[in-house]
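User: Could you go from structure to sequence for me? I need the amino acid at each position, not a summary. Structure tokens:
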């Protein structure tokens, strides 16, 4: 006996499904519009607004700054050129509302023999007393004099509140330092949205701690940042925080909507609760699917990178993520220490390489204590060299007995064995 489905029942079924379908379509539509608009922003991005131009191009510009510890100063086509002995500083008051209006800075300074160049943001109180400061070291290069060393302020908004004084601290000795000034930049809403989309598309680079902390997609309203900057994004830029807030707001909105419908239209609470829960969990499902697609792209990118740089690359030049040629070096070591119980290991750091070498050369193990073996394994340490007396040296100090070089892996990696007494 065939069971008939009444038209009324069918419409009730479709009516219950329509909100869920509409919500899914709306989610996809919003995502699509956001993507299209973001791509169009790339084409139509406006020029960056220079809020303040503190470039040093004439004598009058020099007098806008305050100086301490500079000598032999003079104006050149690139800016102010001077010498530094021990320590010097160039400082200037920051504009009102600096932490809100300014989104980035360009510091025009050339490379030099200085030991350290530091950006200092300070809050000066009564009597010019420094109440607090933010210290950020930078490393100028050839491009930073002509194009400017860009410093994004978006990561330091909370730290820059109430800051009213800027200083460029120069530490060390240098006969020729060139300072071209500073530009303070701000971005329009369109440019910030472009930055958000660009940062969302940046894939997380391989780092040792990724197994414990995975930021996922990031949201940074700065259009000038590039994929190579992704490694320095702080945890608070993660999209996860925004998604949790968004889903919480959606849940609260659905709850208030259900309360309103129950009071105005007298819809039974059991029906409303069922509808609102379906809509809320559908929102989670839409976010889950879109997020899965984005993270799937990141995973496949990592697989493609491993294939290109390690699996299919020539053995002599292949590298594996942040470890470089370590695994080929470990196999190289295994061939030369199989007749020993232990060996001494020198590597860039202990925590990562000692543990990995225990796996790769077992049962022969690296020694963590005082030297007990005649075999010395050196990996990626250009500061350890073989002297003319056939001993290993570190900072001009010999630390082994005379011996011989068993084999060399590359310029800074080799195996040395002491001669029998």
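Assistant: Here is the amino acid at each position, in order:
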């Amino acid at each position: 006996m065939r069971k008939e489905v009444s038209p009324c029942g069918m419409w009730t079924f479709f009516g219950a499904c329509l909100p869920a379908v509409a919500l899914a379509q709306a989610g996809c539509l919003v995502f699509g519009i956001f993507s299209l608009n973001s791509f169009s922003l790339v084409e139509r991005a406006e020029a960056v607004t220079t809020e303040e131009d503190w470039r040093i191009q004439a004598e009058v510009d020099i007098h806008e700054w305050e100086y301490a510890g500079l000598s032999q100063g003079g104006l050149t086509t690139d800016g102010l050129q001077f010498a530094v002995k021990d320590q010097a500083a160039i400082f200037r008051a920051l504009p009102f509302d600096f932490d809100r209006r300014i989104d980035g800075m360009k510091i025009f300074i050339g490379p030099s023999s200085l030991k350290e160049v530091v950006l200092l943001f300070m809050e000066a109180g009564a009597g010019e007393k420094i109440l607090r400061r933010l210290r950020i070291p930078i490393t100028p290069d050839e491009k930073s004099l002509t194009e400017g060393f860009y410093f994004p302020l978006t990561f330091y908004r909370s730290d820059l509140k109430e800051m009213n004084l800027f200083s460029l601290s120069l530490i060390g000795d240098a006969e020729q330092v060139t300072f071209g000034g500073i530009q303070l930049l701000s971005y329009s809403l369109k440019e910030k949205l472009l930055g958000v989309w660009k940062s969302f598309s940046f894939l997380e680079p391989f780092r040792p701690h990724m197994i414990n902390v995975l930021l996922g997609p990031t949201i940074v309203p700065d259009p000038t940042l590039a994929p190579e900057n992704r490694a320095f994004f702080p945890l608070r830029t993660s999209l996860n925080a925004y998604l949790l807030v968004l889903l919480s707001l959606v849940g609260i909105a659905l709850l208030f909507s259900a309360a309103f419908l129950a009071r105005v239209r007298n819809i039974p609470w059991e029906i409303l609760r069922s509808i609102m829960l379906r809509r809320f969990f559908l929102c989670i499902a839409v976010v889950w699917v879109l997020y899965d697609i984005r993270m799937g792209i990141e995973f496949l990118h990592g697989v493609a990178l491993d294939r290109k740089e390690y699996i299919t690359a020539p053995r002599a030049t292949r590298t594996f993520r942040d470890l470089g040629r370590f695994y080929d070096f470990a196999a190289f070591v295994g061939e030369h220490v199989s007749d020993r119980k232990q060996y001494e290991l020198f590597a860039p750091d202990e925590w990562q390489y000692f543990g990995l070498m225990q796996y790769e050369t077992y049962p022969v193990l690296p020694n963590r204590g005082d030297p007990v073996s005649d075999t010395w394994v050196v990996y990626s340490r250009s500061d350890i060299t073989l002297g003319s007396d056939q001993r290993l040296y570190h900072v001009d100090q010999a630390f082994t007995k005379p011996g011989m070089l068993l084999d060399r892996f590359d310029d800074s990696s080799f195996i040395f064995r002491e001669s029998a007494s």
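One structural detail worth keeping in mind: Residues 14-47+189-318 form one domain.
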